[in-house]
Amino acid sequence: MSVLSGQRCCQAARTSQNCIGSQILAPRPAPTRRLVVAHGERRSANRTKWATLEPPSTQEPLVAEPAEELSVADQIWRCSQDLTPVFSEIDRLVAANVRRVQRAFRNARIGPHHFQGSTGYGHGDLGREALDEVMAEVMGAEAALMRVQFVSGTHAIAAALFAVLRPGDEMLAVAGHPYDTLEEVIGSRGSPGAGSLAEWGVGYRELALTEGGSIDWEALGRAVVPGKTRVAHIQRSCGYALRPTLSIEEIERAVKVIKSQDPSVVVTVDNCYGEFTDTREPCAVGADLVMGSLIKNPGGNIAPCGGYVAGRADLISRVGARLYAPGVGCDAGAVGGSTLRLMFQGLFLAPQMTGEALKGGRLVAELLHREGYPVVPAPGLPPVWSMITAVQLGSREAMKAFCGGIQRTCPIGSYISPEPGVTAGYGDEVIFADGTFIDGSTAELSADGPVRPPYVVYCQGGSHWTHWALALEGA
């Protein structure tokens, strides 16, 4: 049975991929030996082989059948028409953020001479320095490091935490349990000897969220221990939790509550999936450091790698010393000219790509809600825009079926069957559907989640909302 069809008969073989008009697609001819052989290759242990000698022998001919009265495609397009007012509000958000980014480019006087790149140490790279300047203004910060040397958002967050925390300090997680990949950074899970914060003598506490999934403001008001609590960490997005994304207003309130107890506490914000979902960023409302990945929102789906940290200038200097080495500072880090240009261009495209992803998420929520599945955020115009739409599917089998359908509509690896498996950084089996041009770029279009009750898949990204329309047909 189809994940999207409830008790109705399966329609998975009757999508637009199976026929053109009323023409039945003929079975594939017997395959010849393929040139590409990659036995056992898989991404993070969640894939069948990227390439095999031949397609599976169990493949059935694709057969067109008569359409039902209201096809899945018709349902999806009807949802999109009902969402016209919501899409219009997203367009207004995109316009405001494009204006913000363009102003930063203009103020930094960005020109073709900034796309030359550098080699070796990367000293004196005018383009890289200008990119940092642009990113700092976009983030509402004093300074920024936008670097290809950050391999992920988790790496950027870890660099910031290790730059600020010292033995005997305490890290306080303000918005419940942080994202799974931070567990090994903190030291609550992972291999001994890896050099976690716990092994460096850094304490850790976290404040549980309320039953409604919001910050416990009463508990936060007395949570800081002056002279001991050094970092108060806020995760903006839901991560792998069924809770709403935090609004900029909530982050601003949290900063004020924390600083009122001890002004010296450094407020860090995991900004992954949060960039350009509002007209302001956390540094603009008092956060000391924000961190994120360039293969999510701010890379505009074309930056090939990298991450960023933005915030107070003195703290950014410490992050530079942590990323590279003490004494090296921020005047280092080579980046090729073509990559540097893509980072500039991706940042300019980022508000538009984020807007398309928000539209796709609203479509996912609307359709799956109508099919009877709990979704977060709820359908319609949300109080806070979220790049992540959580769908509670209820079983391991449903997660595999949904992710399999999404993978079939991806441009890369559409022939791959996602399988739950062990993935570096995660404590549970995780399943990924993300056939993307940039490896791991969940902002392009992805559906993933840890395979554990209540079996929730997290839908993210989308370079155009109509790709989500096709992906939902596949699911």
From TrEMBL:
InterPro entries assigned to the protein according to its UniProt record, in alphabetical order: Met_g_lyase_put, PyrdxlP-dep_Trfase, PyrdxlP-dep_Trfase_major
The protein, known as: Aluminum resistance protein
